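subagent[fold] <- orchestrator: predict structure for attached chain, return C-alpha cells only, no commentary.
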Amino acid sequence: MKASLTLLGILPALAYSSQWPFHRPHRPVGDPIEPVRVGHQQVQQDQQNQQAQQQSSILRPYTTAWVDKLQLVYNTFGEIRNDSSCPTEIQDWNCTPYPLSEKDLARPKDVWHLRPHDIKAIVSIGDSISAGFAMVSERPPFATVFEFRGKVFSGGGDDGEYTITNFLRTYSKHVTGSPSGVTLPLAHGKRLNTAVSGAIAQTISSQIERLRWQFSLVGPYRRYKKEWKLATVFIGANNLCAACADNGVGGPEIAEPAEYAAALKSALRELRDAIGPVFVNLVGIFDVTLVYELSRGYPYCEMLFDKVPIPICGCATANEEDRKKAGDLSREYNTLMEKIADELNEESKDEGTFGVAFQPGLTEFKNGSSGFGQGYMSGLDCFHPNKCANQLMAISLWNNMFSSRGNKEVPMNPSAVQIFCPGPTDYLQ
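subagent[fold] -> orchestrator:
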C-alpha cells in the first residue's frame, strides 16, 4: 500500500475528499453499554456542527471525516512503534493497604478529611486526553483509531494499568465508575468517564448533565449519590489550540482567558449541584506547543504538522509567535484555575461536601522534554500522550493529591518520579 501512494498523490485527496472506503469498526466488547443521555441542546449543537462541517473545507478535529483522514495518513506513512517500551523506567507499584480502625471507617466529617478508602466512585471530565484518544498506536497499514479509556491516567479501569482508580483499589476494593476497554472517537463517554474528544471548557456542561442523570433516581449510579466521589477535571488543550487559527471549533475567541474561566467556573458549580459529595482534582494544563518541538527530527510527525492539511493544533506550528501566545495563555489558564479553586472552596465551605484542589503537577516538565523525543507521544498523531505518558501522569497526579499546596511537585521529572504511598493520616488535598 505504501508503495502505491505517494505524498504528492495523497495531499489533494486529503484536502478535498470527505469519504474513504473504510468501514468503521464495530463497537468493541467491554463494559455493558449504558444508555447515553444527551440533552436537546447537545443534539442541536451536534447537528449544527455537522452542518458547519459540510459547509467548510476545514476539517473539524475528531469528527469522522477527520479521523478517517488521519487514519489513512497513518496507515500509509506511519511507522510501527513499540508502545510497551517507555523512555524511562516506571517504578513498580508497591504500596500496601494501611490498617483501619473502627474510627477510620466512620464517615469523614468533610471533604478535607478524605482518605483513599473513603472514595467510592471515580469521575473523569475533559477532552480527548481524558478519553484516551490514540493512546496506543496500532500497527499500520490496518490500524484503526480508538479512545483507550481503560488506560487513562485519571480513571481507567483496565487491570494492571497505572491509573488513579487502580491505585485507589489498593485501599478499597469497592471503587466504581471506571471504564475498561475502548470507545470510538467522539463517544459521549463510558461509565463515569464522560470526556468527549474535542471538548472545550465551554462545552463540558453537557458532560455534567450526563453525570447528573447517572446519579439521579433512575440512573445506574443512583446508590452512589450520597457516597464520596473523586472527580478529575482536565480541560483546556482545545481552547489553547484555537487561539492561533480558526480550526472549526469556534475560533480564537474561545481561547480568551475570561471566557475560559467563566465557563469552567460555571461548570464546576453545576458539578457541585449534580452528583453529591465530591473532591475535585482541577488539573493544570501544559503548554500544548511543546508537541511541535518534539516532532522535529521525526519525518512522519514533521509531515503531519507541516505538510498534510489535517488540523492537529492551530498553535503547534512553525510560527514562533503563535507558539509563544499559546504558552503564555497556558500559564494564564493555570493562574485562573488556582483562583477558581479558591473561590469555589470559599463558597462551599459551610456545606463540607465539595472541594476543589488545583493540581499543578502536569504544567511543567524538568528541563523541557526534548530529550525524550516522541517517547511519550502518540504514534498516530504525535500530539496526544501515549500509554507511557499516562503512567507518569497518573503517578504525578497521585502524588499531588497527597501534597500540601506549597509542596506539590512542579515541574515533573520523568526520570525521577517516585510513587508516594499514603498512610492512615494522609488526606486528599
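orchestrator: received. Logging for downstream: Strands lie at 121-126, 229-234, 278-283, 354-359. The longest strand covers residues 121-126.
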